[in-house]
Amino acid sequence: MSDFGESSTADDVLAGQDLSGKTVFITGGNSGLGRETGRAMAAKGAHVVLAGRDQEKLNAAVTAIKADHPEAQIESIICDLGALESVRACGKEARDRFDKIDVLINNAGVMATPKGATNDGLETQFGTNHIGHFLLTKHLMPLVEKGQDKRIVNLSSRGHHMAPVDLDDPNFENRDYNEWVSYGQSKTANILFTVGLEQRFGGKGIHAYAVHPGGIRTNLSRHLSEDQSKALISRVTKSDPGFSWKTIPQGAATQCWAATASELRDRGGVYCEDCHVAEVDETSSTGGVRSYALDSASADRLWSMSEQMVGESFTA
Ligand SMILES: NC(=O)c1ccc[n+]([C@@H]2O[C@H](COP(=O)([O-])OP(=O)(O)OC[C@H]3O[C@@H](n4cnc5c(N)ncnc54)[C@H](OP(=O)(O)O)[C@@H]3O)[C@@H](O)[C@H]2O)c1
């Protein structure tokens, strides 16, 4: 279904594409996969908006991309996904500054954080990785509705294999906190959100995709101690003896593919890895998507719960 695979890079996937006229909005755009996605898309003529929580880091990313591509149309906007007021302010500012968004890439994320809470009292990983993006997407939807070939790409992870969403206790109020169960839950929520978006907006020509980018050495591991890092690598290589790290350009490929591939034009609500749509698989540790992450009843429950948590409804 696609000519690309595990070793393809963002530039490979975008080769031959002309993205001029498209506006691409990327959260977590100052670092890792988000920054490389922004670079590769700006190099193909897209108007790129990098969102992040630190203006200095955003400025550094914009400057570095412009140094490589002086013609890049790239700018930045502040959005702290761990603070709902900041998300609302970002949505308002974006609606004032931009006419439309053709591609929204909900890429930012935190992994394996110690037990903690966002500004609004939500568990850090669920609150940042899912709820922050849920509210941001709601506030950017009026711009997405004005785009062409409208797509929303949500960065998930194979880490979703570690846990479904506990819809009765997403914030770990009645169970012991575990940083990997929490990360897995938040990455499953990214897929269920994709399913919920497709159910509500697919008919309006807005399609949503969840992506596992691969295993890539980025700042994502900043919360891991040396021992936790070793334990993670040993778990991954035991369960997937063929595992190898991707480079950042390879890691950014699947989100660039989901954002632009013509094969996906009228199809969404899917989970992609290695530049392909993944199959449902209940047991494999080397790929595939768990059925609990695509379950439409769970997607509906998560949607309603997310609306309650942000205190806003997200009408289609
Ligand atoms: N790398 C991998 O192996 C891997 C594997 C599977 C899935 N993923 C997913 O890929 C995505 C990108 O990760 P990456 O590897 O590129 O990691 P990264 O380099 O650490 O980038 C993460 C980005 O998210 C931003 N972010 C974190 N908390 C935020 C908040 N509260 N508000 C706004 N932005 C926030 C970070 O901003 P700051 O710089 O300000 O912290 C950074 O820009 C994540 O969703 C991750 O779960 C990565």
Automatic annotation (TrEMBL):
Keywords, comma-separated and alphabetical: Oxidoreductase
Entry keyword annotation includes Oxidoreductase: yes
MF terms (GO), sorted A to Z: oxidoreductase activity
Pfam families per UniProt: adh_short
Cytoplasm among keywords: no
InterPro entries: NAD(P)-bd_dom_sf, SDR_fam
Family statement drawn from the similarity comment of this UniProt entry: Belongs to the short-chain dehydrogenases/reductases (SDR) family.
Protein name: Probable oxidoreductase
